[in-house]
Amino acid sequence: MALIGVFDSGVGGLSILDEALRQLPQHDYIYLADSANAPYGEKSSEWIAARSLILCKYLASKGCDAIVIACNTATAEAIKQIRAELSIPIIGVEPGIKPAAMQSQNGIVGVLATEATLNSDKFNALLATLPSNCRFIKQSGAGLVPLIEAGKANSEETLDLLGKHLEPILDAGSDTLVLGCTHYPFLRKPIRKLLGDTITLIDTSDAVVRQLGRQLESLGLNPDSEERGSVAFISSKNEASLLTMAKDLLSSDLNLHFTSTVLLGDVS
């Protein structure tokens, strides 16, 4: 079995961990939440790149066979440098604008993401490869990540803020919405409350974990097994709170896995 590191600025990457536990439950996982520094989307590119590299090196030092950067912002700003410095597979996440363009019926796609992701070279390079007849309505989700981190994903406060962010996307006539931050799949209920079933939601968690599986198979580390691996939750802020949030947000049954918690010390 493999040891897989899953890293995010906070609890958003739990959406990736949830899918990993569904598809690849036999492996051991370390989930690292840098919640003391969340959200990353409002920090400088240089800070994000440096911090992400430090944390991925930490996960590698713990013996991880592969690392998933389960943060769109960190992927956009840091994955190239991290791959250059670490010899293990590094899987990133990026907004699913390509599948959204293929699925949209009217060619109008909303993209809800952090400001850092929307402004990144990596995102805009990907955007430039897509058909010009598809129109992308880019919208920053400023303020949403702190609310999700505070356990308020389904609160009226979140619903009000989300409604303001979705208004330009809805006004443009979008029939497809890209959830361009790993935190945002936890907003499915309020999004549906606001938009109903009239819009297609694009979330890349499934594709990311399938890519992880392919990488593990190439290393001979993905055998079939009925066993369930362990999950260690590491937080730079509050490890007990992280486990509580995980139990609340994950659809996977953590009781089937041995779990542990660790408070991250100074790794700078």
UniProtKB/TrEMBL annotation:
<feature type="binding site">
    <location>
        <begin position="72"/>
        <end position="73"/>
    </location>
    <ligand>
        <name>substrate</name>
    </ligand>
</feature>
<dbReference type="GO" id="GO:0008881">
    <property type="term" value="F:glutamate racemase activity"/>
</dbReference>
<dbReference type="InterPro" id="IPR018187">
    <property type="entry name" value="Asp/Glu_racemase_AS_1"/>
</dbReference>
<feature type="binding site">
    <location>
        <begin position="8"/>
        <end position="9"/>
    </location>
    <ligand>
        <name>substrate</name>
    </ligand>
</feature>
<dbReference type="GO" id="GO:0009252">
    <property type="term" value="P:peptidoglycan biosynthetic process"/>
</dbReference>
<protein>
    <recommendedName>
        <fullName>Glutamate racemase</fullName>
        <ecNumber>5.1.1.3</ecNumber>
    </recommendedName>
</protein>
<dbReference type="InterPro" id="IPR015942">
    <property type="entry name" value="Asp/Glu/hydantoin_racemase"/>
</dbReference>
<comment type="pathway">
    <text>Cell wall biogenesis; peptidoglycan biosynthesis.</text>
</comment>
<comment type="function">
    <text>Provides the (R)-glutamate required for cell wall biosynthesis.</text>
</comment>
<dbReference type="InterPro" id="IPR033134">
    <property type="entry name" value="Asp/Glu_racemase_AS_2"/>
</dbReference>
<feature type="active site" description="Proton donor/acceptor">
    <location>
        <position position="181"/>
    </location>
</feature>
<dbReference type="InterPro" id="IPR004391">
    <property type="entry name" value="Glu_race"/>
</dbReference>
<feature type="binding site">
    <location>
        <begin position="40"/>
        <end position="41"/>
    </location>
    <ligand>
        <name>substrate</name>
    </ligand>
</feature>
<keyword id="KW-0961">Cell wall biogenesis/degradation</keyword>
<dbReference type="InterPro" id="IPR001920">
    <property type="entry name" value="Asp/Glu_race"/>
</dbReference>
<keyword id="KW-0573">Peptidoglycan synthesis</keyword>
<dbReference type="GO" id="GO:0071555">
    <property type="term" value="P:cell wall organization"/>
</dbReference>
<dbReference type="Pfam" id="PF01177">
    <property type="entry name" value="Asp_Glu_race"/>
</dbReference>
<dbReference type="GO" id="GO:0008360">
    <property type="term" value="P:regulation of cell shape"/>
</dbReference>
<comment type="similarity">
    <text>Belongs to the aspartate/glutamate racemases family.</text>
</comment>
<feature type="binding site">
    <location>
        <begin position="182"/>
        <end position="183"/>
    </location>
    <ligand>
        <name>substrate</name>
    </ligand>
</feature>
<keyword id="KW-0413">Isomerase</keyword>
<keyword id="KW-0133">Cell shape</keyword>
<feature type="active site" description="Proton donor/acceptor">
    <location>
        <position position="71"/>
    </location>
</feature>
